[in-house]
Structure formats: C-alpha cells, structure tokens
Amino acid sequence: MAFSRLALCGTSLLRFLAVSPLTTSAAICLARPPFPTRSFVIHACLSIQTSTPVESPYLKKMNPWKPMCLYYTQGKCTKMDDPIHLDKFSHNCSWELETSFAESKHLCSQNLDFLLVLDLEGKVEVLEFPVLMVDANTMQVVDFFHRFVRPSKMSEQRLNEYVEGKYGKLGVDRVWHDTAIPFKQVLEEFEAWMAHHRLWGNEFPGALNRAAFVTCGNWDIKTKVPQQCKVSGMKLPSYFMEWINLKDVYLNFYKRRATGMATMLKELDLPLLGTHHLGIDDAKNIAKVLQRMLADGALMQITARRIPNDPQSVEFLFENRIR
Ligand SMILES: [Zn+2]
C-alpha cells in the first residue's frame, strides 16, 4: 500500500518537474517529513498526488510546513515575486527556531553576543557550508549563511557520483549542481557576511568579535576545515582558531554524555527538524539544542583552541570532555 502511494506520488512529482525548474525542492517535499513522524510523509505525498494540485485547507491548517527553497537560503532565488512559488516553498529559514521569553527564565549572562552554529557536510571534500547566527542573549536566530560547495580536486564523474550519493536520496542534487561554488569563494562570501555583522573583518582581524562557532563535535573545525583549506590551496583563516563543541558543554552542564546530535535531541525531548544530513537542517537541529541549553541556563564557553604558533595542535579547555 505504502509503495503504491509513493509510486503515485512519484508520478505526480514527474508532472510537476516538467513545469517547474525547482525540481529539487519539490523532491524535498517528498523526502522531508513536516514532523518527525513518518506518517506525515504519506499525507504530504497524498496532498499532491491528484491531477489538479489543489491544496486541502484542512491539511494546510494542520501542516504549515513547506519545503525550504534552497535557492533562497543561498541568496539565489529568482522567484520571490511569484505567488505560486512562494506558496509552495518556505522562504523563512528560522521560523522553526522561534523561541519565546517564557522559555528563557534560566538564561544566564553570556560572555559572547553571538553563536555561529556550523555543520559541514561532505567527508571527501566539503559539499555544504551552513551557518546559523544565534543571539546568545535572546536565543533568536538573527541571520544565516548557506552555500553548497563545489569540490576542487575531483573528476567530473567522481564528483557526480559523490553528489548523487550524498544528495540524490535527499532530492537536492539538482539545486546543488545549480548553485555550488568553490570553497575559496564560499569563504570569501562568508567573510563579507561576517563583516556585515561586525563579527570579523578589517575592524576585527584575528578571532571572531564577541562571537564563537558552535559545532557538534570537533571534526568540522579541527579536522575538516584545515583539510579543505589545504586541498583548496588556502591558508587556514584566523577565525577558525577556536570553537565551542556543544557536546562538551552538554556533558559538563547536564552531567551526561551525548554521542551526537540525535542523542541530544532525544534526551531533551526535541523533535528532529527537516532531513538529517542536509547540512542546513542539521545546523537548525544543533541550534535547537543550543537554544534549549541556553534556556536551561548553560554558559557557552570556548572548548577548543589551536596553539597560535602551531595551528596543527589543538588545546582542549574542558577537563571533562567527549573523546
Ligand atoms: Zn525561492
């Protein structure tokens, strides 16, 4: 039964693909549950399997979720004046992360103003670079930066297999191919974005200004960023000298170990947003954990720092940490 529904769903998707250039986001609609229950995937499919794509007001009311426009998240959506497009795809990256003051009665005074949640995707070379900027004092998502990244040292065939293997099953390979840019260009654009927010730049060279990266584990900044910089023929930028590993803060604050994002979400009774392993969604989920920890009264502190004269070496600042 489930198979036939999904098959119908695929047929109507093909019809949709024939008239819309936004094929990948449409596919996310199929791949991404609006809530963490699988049954909603089927409902979402059923809602578009009819020949006339009329939206049920009931479903619309029950399910405000729409697939995110991944052109928009990268500042590349050209259909912002198209009501049909706006109706089909979400153009608000942070509505799922809105918090209320009622949740923040234990919020403590932070030493940092902004927390930049970063979650890289891509094991061989980086494929996605998403950052959510969270105000440490209000817990609100202030802005975000998202780019798909084009590997620089890969044959076309290997690249296609790599992207298909990573994003094909999530239905976002088309948007990846449409938008991915080299890592060097991603960092240049990211630096302009940080300068705009006065987080880094000519005024504030060196480390981030009253801000810090927040990652789930040490891999992203300790391992992957330097590796990718080397592959891309770049010097490691100064803003990647220190970071907060949320798992270490979690261990010291709640006095229990969490092996990863999914464990932290589960233990804090938070639903998984979007699709696991789509970087922008993983960053949202890590931000959700961060918001809860801030609301519970956790102090966000740097957990790891490179030795200035020996950037290959990293000093871990918490005695009690995840190894
Ligand atoms: Zn759009």
Automatic annotation (TrEMBL):
<dbReference type="GO" id="GO:0003676">
    <property type="term" value="F:nucleic acid binding"/>
</dbReference>
<dbReference type="Pfam" id="PF00929">
    <property type="entry name" value="RNase_T"/>
</dbReference>
<feature type="signal peptide">
    <location>
        <begin position="1"/>
        <end position="25"/>
    </location>
</feature>
<dbReference type="InterPro" id="IPR013520">
    <property type="entry name" value="Ribonucl_H"/>
</dbReference>
<keyword id="KW-0269">Exonuclease</keyword>
<dbReference type="InterPro" id="IPR036397">
    <property type="entry name" value="RNaseH_sf"/>
</dbReference>
<feature type="domain" description="Exonuclease">
    <location>
        <begin position="114"/>
        <end position="299"/>
    </location>
</feature>
<keyword id="KW-0732">Signal</keyword>
<keyword id="KW-0540">Nuclease</keyword>
<dbReference type="InterPro" id="IPR047201">
    <property type="entry name" value="ERI-1_3'hExo-like"/>
</dbReference>
<keyword id="KW-0378">Hydrolase</keyword>
<dbReference type="GO" id="GO:0000175">
    <property type="term" value="F:3'-5'-RNA exonuclease activity"/>
</dbReference>
<dbReference type="InterPro" id="IPR051274">
    <property type="entry name" value="3-5_Exoribonuclease"/>
</dbReference>
<dbReference type="InterPro" id="IPR012337">
    <property type="entry name" value="RNaseH-like_sf"/>
</dbReference>
<protein>
    <recommendedName>
        <fullName>Exonuclease domain-containing protein</fullName>
    </recommendedName>
</protein>
